[in-house]
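ARCHIVE CARD
Drawer: 12
Card no.: 0347
Subject: one protein chain, sequence and derived structure
Cross-reference: see card 0346
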Amino acid sequence: MIALPQHTQVLIIGAGPSGLMMAAQLLRHGVIPVIIDSKQGPTNQSKALAVQTRSLEIYRQMGVIDKVLSEGKPAVGATIHWQDKEVASLPLAKAGEGLTPFPYILMYPQNRNERTLLDYLTLNCCPVYWNTSLESFKEISNGVEVQLRNGKETFTLTSDWLVGADGAHSVVRKQLGIPFTGDTYQHKFYLADIKLANSFTDDMVHLFMADNGFAGFFLMPEENTYRIVGNLPPAFNDKQEPDLKDVMPHLQSVTGGTVEISQVNWFTIYKLHHRMAEKFHNRRCFLIGDAAHTHSPVGGQGMNTGLQDAYNLAWKLAGVVNGQLAPTILNSYAEERMPIAKELLRTTDRIFNVVTSQSWGSNLLKRYIMPAALKFFWKNETRRIDLFRKISQLEISYRDSKINLHLSHGSKIKAGDRLPYLQIFDEKKQQQTDIHAWCSKPGFTLITMGEIKENMLFALAKWITQQYPVGLNFFHLPFSERNQSVFDAFEVRPGQRKGLIVRPDMYIGYINDVVEIEMLNNYLRKVMGFVG
């Protein structure tokens, strides 16, 4: 085992997707954390499968998107069946066109996400300390003191900050005494990674429903390979180790006898929970991912929400560790992420209860009413786009956050919104790019657009060099016909201008119809909390 240091600035407990993303994002912002996990090493088995658009945008910003896309498989929508009869088809790809470079859901299993992030950590000389568990910790005057165990050996380590990414049974959360309120779903469920002899001929997710249950078929990167998630028949609830052979009669009943399995790669039984911690932040300790919230697999939101937790917290924590931001910025993590988790729990729980219920009323709803409603709903382009934005997590906004400031008359795009994906022609470099690419570097990004005199642009560049030499990037977009769509999106008319500051997580922190150094500086110092 690599020797643990005696002190670290940030200690991360748990090397699942959330913990690894937390470490990777800290590294991007110049902080080298210590990350531990009680497992012996990376696992090849995982329940999470779907990577949403917003997470793919993070991977793009990190520079690893080509690897992720080459190893994953896009799912372009969902088909719903009542036994062997198709009752609704919901293609999503066209609904996302123009909103993102990734208008689909990428099927990329959790273990591959972890491997990509582990490779990123390795390239940046940040090891994971495997087979190392958290025994206990206590807060001290300027951090936490933790007791760790590796085999029979125990270690004492101090850390300025502690991040609990240690799953639904989080030791960090339990030792902080934070309640984890919610419940466990009544039924047991099974998960099977299989190869089909009679594979589907499309790249859709297939959901089968019947009076006695459901089964979802989620395509995997390998040819003709799927992950099946379904309800375990009540007769097997008390059986210790049922296998796929036991479940097959029930699966055939649900699918109308259409399934032919040629190979079983993995089969497991599990229970599902819907719970949320009452606090995500306690002094020098934070909870992210399943340690903070766990919910049903509806919409493939769980792993992605954990990645977003880490993405939100890491730049704030790095800013404090590096002495760039005041510690008060850390309060915004829970203020921004807890409403997202709460709404996610509410919506996924409601949908999952309908899908899994076998009551007479629910079956009537699923067999007749829901398909007709979905077909009617899907005819409306605006609704299709809205659904894609919701599933893909593009609609997540922090408009009510205290660290954002909206001083513009524009109503389409506001401070707190995700920076929209827009194609732009870079007049300086004379090449086509997009506004997300301008925000690919770590730190904040100042973007000005419209008619701004050259001496003002020079003054802005000088101000940044003198006041924010590290952590504030600068781009200007002058008026041109080739960029008219960008000005239309931001409601900038000829003769006008606009200034915006994009946060490191590609959310707009500040937007104003006036470009003045004093106002920009006031936001960065008094609202965002820049120090020094």
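Annotation on reverse: The chain has a mean pLDDT of 92. The first helix runs from residue 17 to 28.
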